[in-house]
Amino acid sequence: MLRWIAALAMALAPLPAAAHKPSDSYLALRVEGATVHVQWDIALRDLEYAIGIDTNEDGVITWGELQARHDAISAYALARLNISAGGRPCSSSAVEHQVERHSDGAYAVLRFAAVCPEKPGTLEAAYALFFDLDPLHRGLARLESGGETRSLIFSPAQPRQRLALAERSPLRQFLDFAREGVWHIWIGFDHVMFLLSLLLPAVLTRQGGRWVALSGFKPALWKTCVIVTAFTLAHSLTLSLAALEVLALPTRWVESAIAVSVMVAALNNVYPVLERRLWMIAFLFGLIHGFGFASVLKDLGLPRESLLLALVSFNLGVEAGQLAIVTALMPVAFALRESWFYRRLTLAAGSLVIVALAGVWFVERAFELRVLS
After folding, report:
1. What's the pTM?
2. Angle of helix 350-367 relative to helix 251-270, nearest 10 degrees?
3. Domain residue spans in the chain?
């Protein structure tokens, strides 16, 4: 965390608010007696979109601009988080403001205490931050009580959480993070486009310098399994290493490299360099995608015992979401593989569209520009 001395240094420099991963906030709750100590990290880019912080509209947020909006930020955020114990609301004290940098940019940090009428046996939290503006937003929370730590996730489908402080439910954590893994792959359009670029030619083979349909479903299925397995092994490896903080890369590099991977995979469909070993592309760039998958878990700051559980369940969720995409795509691709529509329009033209889209992503991420957003 940046202390006040770091905050003073930030007054002399702009705070970039651009990012390219799904919107998240990070909520840390620590229960001590009848008091719940709260730290809430909210992305500046999200606050700028919701209430406006960049008053001179020059594309950067300075510490002075952030200070001028402290009261507005507190009012906006606290109106969207209600903590209660035993059905009775806990009153929030004055908010202390700081700034912290996560892997995807600068975050406003709100620190306050929620004082409950009595020591809670059960804690209820209702979360509604940004849900009206972004249905993909998630609140990633960590609760510490009685020497134990657990994680929970707020979403539009699950905006309320009820926690019995005397009990711990690893199964609930497992299911929550598995669901988030599925959701992450489904809304991670760059990951989906990369996988799609690799799977589109899986029902075809190169003969005489052109794509022709595979004769049967078995070779197409085998080709698909090899590609998906290579991608899975690669991103599972780097997801684990990054989430466990064994290996780390700058988020800007990772996100830019992911965009490049999508371009390379799609271009290979139009101008094939690797015609029969698509698994090599899947494995090589899957290593980079793993770092992208790890950003959510790493930024959440879970203690190691919770992180291991979250890592396993999140990764299994990613694989389940990936399997669902493959299961939906392959029968349709196999049925259409002999048609002009598939080879010319879906594979060739579709790959060029993906190349163009990934090119825009690369420019946005490498040079911190906003083109599509």
Report:
1. 0.73
2. 160
3. 4-168, 178-367
